[in-house]
Give the backbone structure.
Amino acid sequence: MGDPVPRVKEPHLAGRWYPANPDELAELTRRLLDDAGPPRTGVRAIVVPHAAYQYSGRTAAAGFGAAGGAWRRAIILAPSHFANFRGASVLPMTAYRTPLGLVPIDEEAVAILGRASQVRANPAIFMREHALEVELPLWQALAPGCPIVPVLVGTLEADDAASLGAALGPLLAPDTLLVVSSDLVHYGRRFGYLPVPATDAQTVAAAIRRLDQGVLDRVVACDADGFVRYVEETGATVCGRSPIEILLHALPPGVRGEQVAYTTSLELTGDYEHSVSYAAVVFSATTA
C-alpha cells in the first residue's frame, strides 16, 4: 500500500482576495515584502489585518516584513467569522494549499494544543474562513516551506484568554512566530456601528482614527485588561478581539509592541459610509 493521501485544506480566496496565478501572486507578495522595509530584531509576534490584498496587503506585509524570515513555524490565531463556538479550534489536516503551493501544518504542535480544555479539532469551521487563509501567501513568501499551526478563535468567557495564552506557552520558542489576524474598527450601517453620523469623510475619518488609536495604544502597551475595557466601553468593532486578548496573555515578559502601519478602506476608496481599519503591530523582545 502507498502512503495515505494528504488531507489538504484547499484555497477559498484565490482569484478573489489574492491572485490565483502563482507567478502573479509570487510577484505581488515579493513586492509587498520588499516595500515593507528591513526586519526588526527579536520579533516574537505580529498583529496583521486580513482583508483582500488590494485593501490591506501592504499593511499586512509591513508586519510580516518586520518579522523577517528566520523561522521554524508560525502559530496563526484568527477570529471565526462564520461559526459560533467557545474557545478555540485547530485544523486536523496536513497542509493548506495556496497558488504558491502547500503550507505544511505542524501536526505535533496541533496535537499539543488540542489537549487544552478550551481547544477542539474541527475542520468544518475552517472551510469558508478568510481571516486565516489570507495570511498564508505572505507567510509563504517570508518563510518558504515553514509550517503553521492554524487556530480559529470563537467567543471567550471569564479566564479563557489567559488559559489559552498559557496553553500556547510551550509552543512559543524564539523560532516560532505568533501571528494574530485582526482588522480594527468596522464603521457603518452595514456593521451596525455608527459612533458618529456619516456626514462627511473628514469627520468620519477622524472619529475612526481616534477609536483605532485607543485600541492600538493598549495593544502596543501589552495591556490585556485595558484593551478589553476599552473595547467594551467604546463598542469598537475589532473582529479579532479574542485572538488579540489571547496574544496579550501569551506574550512573555520583556516584550514591547510597536505600531508599524495603519490605513483604512476609507482612505483607499473614499467611501465614508462604510470603512474598515487595518494596522500592523510588531512585538519584540527588549531583553536578551
About this structure: The first helix runs from residue 22 to 34.
